Amino acid sequence: MKFAKAWLAAGVVLAASQFGALYAQDGNPEWRALRQELVQRINANCYDVGTLELAQQVLQTAQRTGGAESADTALSLVLLAHVHQRQGQLTRAAQSYTAALAIQEKTAGPDSPRVAFTLSALAGLHYRREAFDQAIALYERALAIHEKQRRPDAPAVLNSRQNLAAAHRAQGAYAKAAPLYERELDARAQPLLAVALVH
């Protein structure tokens, strides 16, 4: 279990940085400033009442300036869900992730990288609750999106595969986890092999 959680934690950090890049240019200036303040608190591992209030303010500002179904609102819901999750409010976190996902699937399409990230975030919540069947189903969807759009050795693909393997392993399904870990290691080895051949 510790091994699986280590893989999962590493994947979450990588996925979060990729998701931030997807939204880097989005948003009303007022909302972007509040979002940046919230992200700084999250990066500082600060999840007190003030952070929750700021996350709620970020969401309200997004809804006011961009609309109820804007990309800003979707990201604000993801950030609010993350804060709820870190505070142990898992039901509220799941509700916010689900609401964000509905907006993204409607506005960006079911194969959007933004959808894939939110699927992974919601899957991570189910993983924490040890609802592994639900986590696996969501991780599988996220991986399918990334594999459709990216190279086999792309960080998003590797991250999604790690998460799925970790969920299978946590469930005790080692026969399903092992091939995923092997594919991930093979994909990581390909760039190294190419460098070795060039030199």
Report on this structure.
- Residues about 1-20 and about 190-199 have low confidence and may be disordered.
- This protein has helices at about 1-20, 30-45, 50-65, 70-85, 90-105, 115-130, 130-150, 155-170, 175-199.
- The longest helix is centred in the C-terminal third of the chain and has 25 residues, at about 175-199.
- Helix 4 (about 70-85) packs antiparallel against helix 5 and helix 8 runs antiparallel to helix 9 (about 175-199).
- The chain is globular.
- The protein is about 80% helix and about 0% strand.
- It holds the Pfam family TPR_12.
- InterPro entries: TPR-like_helical_dom_sf, TPR_rpt.
Keywords:
TPR_rpt; mainly alpha; globular; signal; 0% strand; 9 helices; Tetratricopeptide (TPR) repeat protein; TPR-like_helical_dom_sf; 199 residues; disordered N terminus; repeat
